Every structure is written in structure tokens, then in C-alpha cells.
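ok so i was messing around last nite and threw this chain in just to see what happens. nothing serious, just curious
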Amino acid sequence: MKSIIKNTKSMILPFLVASVFLSCKIDSKEPAIQTSKQEVVPSKEAIKIDGTTIKVEALSEEEKKLFKNLIKMEESIVLADSVKRYYRTEEGEPEHFLNQLIYSSEEGLIGEQYISYTLTYTPITYQDEDVTISYNFNAGTALHGSGTITSYSGKIVSTSSHCGTSACGTTLSIDGKQVYEKYEDL
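result:
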């Protein structure tokens, strides 16, 4: 777990720089995919920014399987078919450190209800099934929220917080079983 925290701290700056750049570069050129109605067209060239390389690709079968299982536990997750993969070069070797789903908006909405939605996750490897997923959303009304899902040593821990017009709520679940819930009136 300490290595996850250490790696997360070291990847924040390149991710923020790349996200700002890519919101102008890739999103306007690459079709962002959310449903199977559209065809995924991966990027043929990687973009390099200050030691960070970004590639646009289709989700792998392992990723699709993971998300289908996790969406059963967390209804706020919106899926997409394509992903930005972030790599950094350390000691001459590229290291895959983050993924971000690419969404399109249909009639101005993502997932039929959100004006903005971001989902990032750590790389999934064959040797290590541990993954951390972070998401945040805004419905353009008072409804907005965020959450984290972490799979670690066979356990799945999920936290979420959200606010609406009259209250805010926080939940914590372990392996799909809610163990904490708190709501506060605004």
C-alpha cells in the first residue's frame, strides 16, 4: 500500500500537465467513446510531454471485465471504450503509471446525466490484480460527487461522497457490503 501512495504522489504533476494539454489536443481529434454505438479509433502516434508519453487505445478485455464487475458495486461509474495511457521514462525504460477513460457527450451529456465525468485508474497487470480507481462527476445541477475503489490483496474497498440539493453523503463499502454511511443536511 505504501508503494501505491508513493507512486501516486510522484505521478500527480505529470498527470496534471498532460491532462491540461490533452484536453485541447487529443479530445478534439480523437473520438471519445462511451457506448458501443461508436467505433474506437486509437491514436497511431503517442504524444510526449516533459517525460510523459500518452497513448490513446481501446480498453483491453481484462479492463472491460474489471469494470463490469466493479460497476455492480458502484452505480456512479460510467464506462467508456477508449483510454489514455500515461507512461513516464525512468532510467531509460517506459513505466506505465496511469489510465484515464475518454468520454464523449451525447447531446451535451456523458452517461445520459453528467456534464463532466473523469475516471482514472492504475495499470492492470497480469502479475498484480491490485488496482485503484478514482472518479468524480458533476450533473450540472446540485448533484456532484467523487469516489475511490481500491482492490488490494483480494479485498475491494470503495468510498464515495456526493452532494445534492439538500444533503451530502459519504459511504464506505468493503467487498460490496456497506459498512459506513453518513448524510448531513445542507
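not much to say yet. The chain has one domain: 2-185.
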